[in-house]
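Let us work through a complete example step by step.
Step 1: write down the sequence.
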Amino acid sequence: METIRVRLAITGVVQGVGFRPFVYRTAKEFQLNGWVANDRSGVQAELEGAPTQVWSAVERIRSAPPPSATIGELVAEQTAPKGYDKFEIV
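Step 2: predict the structure and record it as tokens.
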């Protein structure tokens, strides 16, 4: 099975609004591995799994964020897989 990794950089009102748990739940629903974390500019995440699952999760994150969140920009960059074995909030 092909595996891809997509790195997300998300800005806007995405801290203190349940965004990281939302990304975690989305990743688990789509059976992905990787991580999500806050950073200075917003939220960073890496999603790894089957291509259709990864891109479906990215679309869900982009189109259906938590009600209190406002995405200013979401940049998705496909990179080489790292072999994550779980998904975690860091």
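Step 3: interpret the result. The chain has one domain: 4-81.
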